[in-house]
Amino acid sequence: MTAAKPAGSNKIATLTGPDGKVTQLPIIDGSVGPSVIDVRKLYNDTGYFTYDPGYTSTGSCESKITYIDGDQGILLHRGYAIDELAEKGDFLEVAYLILNGELPTADQKAGFVQNVTYHTMVHEQMTQFWRGFRRDAHPMAVMCGVVGAMAAFYHDSTDITDPRQREIASYRLIAKMPTIAAMAYKYSVGQPFMYPQNKLSYAENFLYMMFGIPCEDYKMSPVLGKAMDRIFILHADHEQNASTSTVRLAGSSGANPFACIAAGIASLWGPAHGGANEAVLEMLAEIGSKDKVGEAVKRAKNKDDNFRLMGFGHRVYKNFDPRAKIMQKTCHEVLGELGIKDPLLDVAMELEKVALQDDYFVQRKLYPNVDFYSGIILKAMGIPTSMFTAIFALARTVGWVAQWREMIEDPQQKIGRPRQLYTGAAKRTYVPVEKRR
Ligand code: ACO
User: Fold this and answer.
1) Is 308's C-beta closer than 6 angstroms to any atom of ligand 1?
2) How confident is the model at residue 341 (pLDDT cuts 50, 70, 90)?
3) Are 401 and 173 in contact (CB under 8 A)?
4) pLDDT band for position 271 (50/70/90)?
5) Does residue 19 have an active-site annotation?
6) Helix or strand or coil: residue 116?
7) Of 48, 185, 227, 231, which is least surrounded by CB within 10 A?
8) Which of 61, 399, 85 is nearest to 93 (CA)?
9) What is the best residue among 269, 309, 318, 374 to mutate for testing ligand 1's pocket, by most ligand atoms within 8 Å of CB?
10) How confident is the model at residue 24 (pLDDT cuts 50, 70, 90)?
């Protein structure tokens, strides 16, 4: 990949320093969306760093994978709208698209599915790891550990300079993640691990490994299989979010892909990121009933109360998260299929209605995000809340791997090394312990 130098790159921004010195900064246009001011030479030319904690105004890389227009509520993967992909595609097709840039032909798709399927089992010796964990370990703790440990088992795909090894590592990560996640669940409930069934689709296989048991046939519901597949699609990639940036930063040092994805899993675990759908369900249960929604909204607006409406708001979307709309539809389909009347869905719908009419949320452009409905769907499927983020991680592995590969293949790639605004003590002299007060 080369640096973007399309039309418009001859535009210049000028910066005047306190000493009156004028510095010219090139502006680079992307294909769509905001242009960027190229500050790469800023420190050399002026002695200043930029300051942007939380990176709200910083483009950390050039990428061709995912485009988000947060004001319009648009999400495109390689140019295709997420709602079209979720409606018409399936997860492995979307995975191929995200990784390779184009939708696959029928032959390419068959080959890709075969490659992923071929790698679904984990090395038998890896199953020993699980015994080292407590049964009540959080699945994300298990996944961080086991995915990082893959580097100890698959040495033949850790040479990041070899494109074939990078490709095999990608297949291994995407293929084994459902197996690893399902094993974390099986271990927690004391049931035997289920080997993958390669005749099943990616999403169905995951449900089979989660809920199948060796002594009975597992009856697959196509509606649930499709819903799971859609949840995977909706979580497959989301541009330079915290976990993806973590994967890129870890990978920028040349770390192996398994270590990088383990770092991504760690970052995703937090409640402000992947842990949000777990937190949404806890919040809905805490609210309890429709008549308590007003009270919850009041608390969320109170700055002296650290209660927030989980599943509401997004760093980038200042409009409806397009994934939330699809999730809401899927939620109704799944509950209908299972004949479940979940009071939490009533609470969720009332909460959405009240918040969207409330000035506080309207003014701050806080809309439901992808996590608002996904928890209700997963709960209806019988998936415990502790597995929610693990499911997010397995789907996002596609995006992490694609972004990691894009970075490694970028000739301009260098180790990520942000600077800082230092506000600590200036140089001082060491005081021996007996003289300190
Ligand atoms: N409930 C109540 N108020 C909120 C919420 C919320 N969920 N989200 C933001 N606000 C308020 C803030 O208090 C702030 O108000 P102020 O301007 O009066 O101080 C304003 O809206 C802006 O909020 P920030 O925290 O500055 O926005 P930021 O972009 O940093 O945060 C985030 C985005 C972390 C997602 C936030 O909206 C949040 O915590 N939401 C709940 C957690 C959640 O659902 N996370 C999932 C994100 S999606 C994902 O990771 C897949």
Assistant:
1) yes
2) confident
3) yes
4) confident
5) no
6) helix
7) 48
8) 85
9) 309
10) very high
Q: What is the pLDDT of residue 279?
A: 87
3-state secondary structure of 286: helix
Residue 282, helix vs strand vs coil: helix
Q: How far is the centre of ligand 1, averaged over its atoms, from the C-alpha of 333 (Å)?
A: 29
Q: Quick one: average pLDDT of 144-148?
A: 96
When pLDDT is cut at 50, 70 and 90, the band that residue 402 belongs to is: very high
Q: Whose CA is nearest to atom 20 of ligand 1?
A: 364
Work out the burial of residue 370: count CB atoms within 10 Å of its CB; fewer than 13 is exposed, 13-18 middle, 19 or more buried: buried
pLDDT average, residue stretch 102-124: 96
How far is C-alpha 206 from the geometric centre of its chain's CA atoms?
Answer: 18
Query: What is the atom index within ligand 1 of the atom nearest the CA of 372?
Result: 44
Residue type, 321: D
Average model confidence (pLDDT) across the chain: 93
* Distance of CA 314 from the midpoint of ligand 1 (Å): 6
Q: Are 375 and 148 in contact (CB under 8 A)?
A: no
* Any atom of ligand 1 within 6 Å of the Cβ of 273: yes
Residue nearest to atom 44 of ligand 1 (CA): 311
pLDDT exceeds cutoff 70 at 177: yes
Catalytic-residue membership of 371: yes
CA dihedral 253, 254, 256, 262 (to 10 degrees): 20
- Going from the Cα of 18 to the center of ligand 1, the distance in angstroms, rounded, reads 35
With a 6 Å cutoff on the Cβ, whether 364 touches ligand 1 is yes
Q: 1 pLDDT band (50/70/90 cuts)? A: very low
Nearest atom of ligand 1 to the alpha carbon of 56? 29
pTM score of the predicted model: 0.90
Probe residue for ligand 1, chosen from 268, 303, 315 as the CB with the greatest number of ligand atoms within 8 Å: 315
The neighbouring-strand residues paired with 69 are 74
In ligand 1, which atom is closest to the CA atom of 273?
A: 50
Both tokens of 104, joined, read 């696959």
148 alpha carbon to ligand 1 midpoint, in Å?
A: 31
Beta carbon of 309 within 6 Å of any ligand 1 atom:
yes
- What letter would DSSP give residue 419? -
How is 122-178 classified by DSSP, letter by letter?
PPGGGHHHHHHS-TT--HHHHHHHHHHHHHHH-GGG--TT-HHHHHHHHHHHHHHHH
Q: Which of 403, 410, 408 is nearest to 1 (CA)?
A: 410
Q: Which of 382, 374, 384 is nearest to 234 (CA)?
A: 374
